[in-house]
Task: inverse folding
């Protein structure tokens, strides 16, 4: 996803951001006051509804062009947004309560994305044209994990993912972890062990927290998304990583708020809501009101920078500058609602990551 550079927090103890202080008097993201308790639950339903409504109103902007299979087509401006719509929409659908408008709308958006790839036919053509590329498989896995399958795609993918080239594709560790999760979703034996890959990531190495910045921040969030299957399986987070994230997410979130990095803020909130055990309520209560205030009246959220306050503006930001952060906000809101409303479960300090070479059928 997006790898926008961000100004990380200064080394030292978690502090209170001026922006958070204005929204939640007497509390930073590290230590929320009792007066701020419940602040996240007060804004989350509206944030989720607004973000989904904006996405629905702009669904045609995710439509694939007629020349999507041509070599010159920009994947990042066509297939990437649609794949993100499928991935985050399917997670929101699974996370929300059946029968609610949010649940139904998320399902409609995933169905729309499936129509755009011709029920998998287009992804099969992409795989034929680029058998060495991982992205058609990863987009397909977003649908497969939701229960939408294409027999022809899987028949071709099966021998391709058994090749030496597939097992030795050179990529960053968090991206490789994403491929492992895609294989799990499709239901095949993974090409490598998830635990070994996790240990090579920035997060798995428990890197010095003051080294956090934009690229490492996005690598960290996606490590958690891939490890937990986009928040569906929090217990896959090992105890040491759980403790590390609970300690340092408040400081990182403060840094993102102060520098206006709304997209990365949303991803950090989604990470916080993907942790096993009790929800980090103080963090969620301190940060969500700030992001809710940034959200435009139309429901969209900018990736970075000062928010537009003109409520009469129907499209305050270019689509490319807000679609991802809006989807991420909806995704994080759905996970946060689930986390805050779910019964507390043991954190399990001695957990280890689930081995990655098992056969897993969603």
Result:
């Amino acid at each position: 996803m997006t790898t926008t550079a961000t100004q990380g927090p200064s080394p030292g103890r978690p502090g209170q951001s001026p922006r958070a202080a204005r929204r939640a008097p007497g509390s930073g993201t590290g230590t929320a006051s009792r007066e701020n308790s419940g602040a996240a639950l007060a804004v989350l339903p509206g944030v989720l509804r607004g973000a989904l409504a904006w996405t629905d109103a702009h669904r045609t902007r995710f439509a694939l062009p007629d020349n999507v299979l041509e070599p010159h087509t920009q994947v990042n401006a066509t297939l990437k947004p649609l794949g993100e719509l499928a991935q985050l929409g399917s997670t929101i659908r699974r996370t929300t309560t059946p029968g609610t408008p949010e649940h139904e709308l998320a399902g409609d958006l995933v169905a729309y994305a499936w129509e755009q790839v011709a029920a998998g036919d287009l992804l099969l053509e992409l795989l034929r044209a680029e058998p060495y590329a991982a992205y058609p498989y990863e987009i397909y896995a977003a649908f497969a994990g939701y229960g939408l399958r294409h027999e022809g795609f899987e028949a071709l993918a099966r021998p391709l993912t058994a090749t030496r080239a597939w097992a030795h594709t050179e990529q960053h560790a968090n991206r490789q972890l994403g491929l492992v999760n895609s294989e799990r979703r499709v239901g095949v034996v993974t090409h490598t062990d998830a635990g070994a890959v996790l240990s090579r990531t920035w997060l798995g190495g428990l890197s010095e927290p003051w080294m956090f910045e934009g690229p490492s921040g996005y690598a960290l969030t996606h490590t958690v998304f891939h490890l937990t299957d986009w928040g569906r399986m929090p217990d896959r987070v090992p105890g040491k990583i759980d403790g590390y994230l609970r300690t340092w997410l408040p400081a990182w979130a403060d840094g993102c708020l102060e520098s206006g990095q709304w997209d990365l803020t949303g991803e950090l909130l989604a990470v916080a809501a993907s942790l096993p055990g009790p929800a980090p309520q103080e963090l969620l209560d301190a940060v969500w009101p700030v992001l809710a205030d940034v959200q435009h009246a139309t429901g969209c959220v900018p990736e970075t920078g000062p928010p537009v306050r003109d409520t009469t503006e129907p499209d305050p930001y270019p689509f490319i500058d807000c679609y991802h952060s809006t989807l991420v906000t909806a995704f994080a809101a759905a996970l946060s609602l689930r986390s805050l409303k779910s019964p507390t479960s043991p954190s399990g300090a001695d957990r280890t990551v689930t081995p990655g070479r098992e056969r897993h059928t969603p």
User: Anything to note?
Assistant: DSSP finds 15 helices and no strands in the chain. Residues 193 and 356 are 4 Å apart (CA to CA).
